[in-house]
Amino acid sequence: MITSRAGNRITDVGGVTVGHHHRIEEPQWATGTTVVRVAGEGDRVPMVAVDVRGGGPGTRETDLLDPSNTVQTAHAIVLTGGSAYGLAAADGVMGVLESEGVGLPMDEQGHVVPIVPAAVIFDLPVGEWHARPDAEFGARAAWSAGVDFEVGSVGAGAGARAGALKGGVGTASVRIPDGPAAGITVGALMVANPVGTVIDPDTGLPWAAGKDDLERHGLRTPSGPEIARLAELQEKAKVLNTTIGVLATDAAFDAAMTRRVAMAGHDGLARAIRPAHSPLDGDTIFALATGAVAPGAGGPIPPGMYPQVAVLAEVCRHAAHVVARAIVDAVISATPVGELAAYTQVAPSALR
């Protein structure tokens, strides 16, 4: 497996950790769970929001995250395989958090209620139907959470498909160098499991792979026969899929502005996957803002407008970019599972 690298992962946002648990035991098991934990600092409470665009989502606690509702935070976010059955993994995460005293404080006796939203991918046909994540998967993923974590066919990406290729978990981040949002970090972790294709049939390269991505992954245009093979495989793609993920920033945003970041993430999803947000996808992106960096005003703003709108616009722009990069990372880092071939297996000449 490939380990995420500092300077290009969601955990570059302080207070964010990631853990995985999966089982890949062919032909029975090919599924798993990924947990993103978020910790506040002092009295600062992270804001958490969500935006759902796919027509077939499987989710838990997403209504709670509407900015008009009372609770505006979460203590962990669960991304998991197993379709709706996999939502049980969140129970295990709640148990771990409760044992640590992490959650909304309910009384003076130390009782808490952890807030653990979740989203699932449909990976049931990759292994056997009954082999799916449960509460133990969630607990093990939560226990293992740290700054360093693996990408590729791990965690919730163990049984993921990207069209007809092996999907997986990918990550990316950026520290905004200049402008009104200078110094703010934005990171993404995505589980790529789309109905649509992630590969341009004309070039044989990921749709969203820019020059930096090609250099980072050591990619070049594959041979003609390999491009034809990739196109041939795409015709065998399944039609029940989902791409889910988490965006994180250390900006001090409120809940409504954090939801704008989640919304912007879907622009990156649409750059990396074609088509995106189909009636058969459950595309869901969570966003969290830890509040560690208080952004400046970013210039004069007319009265009646959000005073940090210029900062928010820059964070949203970078949010779309890191989501697209994380999806590319997921596909390039994936390894074969069962009959699902990985991109690097089908197009080995693409690797320099």
UniProtKB/TrEMBL annotation:
One of its GO terms (molecular function) is aminopeptidase activity. Transmembrane segments: none annotated. SUPFAM superfamilies: DmpA/ArgJ-like. It holds the Pfam family Peptidase_S58. It comes from the Bacteria. Belongs to the peptidase S58 family. This is Peptidase S58 DmpA.
